[in-house]
Amino acid sequence: MADFADTRVSLAGQGTLTGVALTNASGGACIAAVAGIEITARVVTGVTVTAGDTILILRRGSVYWAIAVAGAAPTVPPTAPTTPDSPPPDTGDSSPAPKPSTTTGSLTVHPVATSTWRDGHWRTDIGSSTSADTYQGRYGGSGYGRNSGFAFYGSKPHTLSGATITKCTVRLRRLTSGDYSKRSPTLRLVSQSTRPSSFPTLNESTTGPALGVINRVSPWETTFTLPDSWGQAMVDGTRGGLGITVASDSPYIRLAGRGSWSAAWTLTLYWRRTS
Predict the structure, then answer these.
(1) Where is pLDDT greater, at 95 or 221?
(2) 129 and 59 both lie in a single domain
(3) Would the pTM count as exceeding 0.90?
């Protein structure tokens, strides 16, 4: 068959060519397309050409020889990239639980009432029965009974419900009454958070600070540290106030109430909360 392609494009001098078989090999030859040109290629003995194969073609003079069938390019699986940011292999262990969060703070609580009890009732001769000074014991030679002074803190300590108290302090100032020497009141923790109509319920006790009379013997004012458990009891609601009282007549002591000193009996609760 005449090869008219040579009249349009010359393939001379291109060495080994690559073409696509358009027909199966028959009679030792096949029709192939090379660079868009149809040619007749003789098939070398032993080479099997099927239409669609990619074949290697060698030209000698005006004769094209199909010398081999080109195989498909080998398939190489991609290699997974390894980077420093790759996550560690899963060992099956669960992640550790997050560390608990801890917050701390302090709460200042002023008494809702300061009062003194004597002879079966709350005293009104020393001022308002809810802001009076607080007395302990009996004045020497007096025909009246013993005094017991109290401070009540209302519901504010309960706002710390669920917190742990780490420190508890109270502000105290001793006023003129009795002798001038340093004297220590006996502090009591009471159940009621507001002033009852009857004598309060007394609970735990501790010895208070040694104070002299104001402007006479120093110190007459202090911030006294109470047991942590006292502050916790107020937060938990099992206790509600503080008092000064003794079973005997002395020491006779007068501590400022909220009417004569704004800081009197102020409670400060230091707390910690973990969540």
Answers:
(1) 221
(2) no
(3) no
86 assigned to some structural domain = no
The tens digit of pLDDT for each residue in 35-54 reads 878 889 888 888 888 988 88
- Tell whether 80 is covered by a domain: no
In terms of domains, do 114 and 164 share one? yes
Question: Minimal CA–CA distance to 202: which of 236, 237, 241?
Answer: 241
273: its two tokens: 């909360």
Number of neighbouring beta carbons within 10 Å of residue 144: 11
* For the ranges 62-66, 86-90, 126-130, 233-237, the one whose mean pLDDT is highest: 233-237
Co-location of 173 and 225 in the same domain: yes
228: number of Cβ within 10 Å: 15
**Residue 178, C-beta contacts closer than 8 angstroms, at least 6 positions apart:** 137, 139, 140, 213, 251, 252, 253, 254
Give the mean model confidence (pLDDT) for residues 182-205. Answer: 98
The total number of structural domains that make up the chain:
2
Share of the chain above pLDDT 70, in %: 87
Does the CA dihedral 187-190-194-198 come out positive or negative?
Answer: negative
DSSP result, 211-275 = BPPTTTSS--EEEEEEPHHHHHHHHHTS--EEEE--SSS-S-EEE--TTT-TTTT-EEEEEEEE-
Same domain, yes or no: 150 and 52: no
Domain enclosing residue 135, as ranges? 102-274
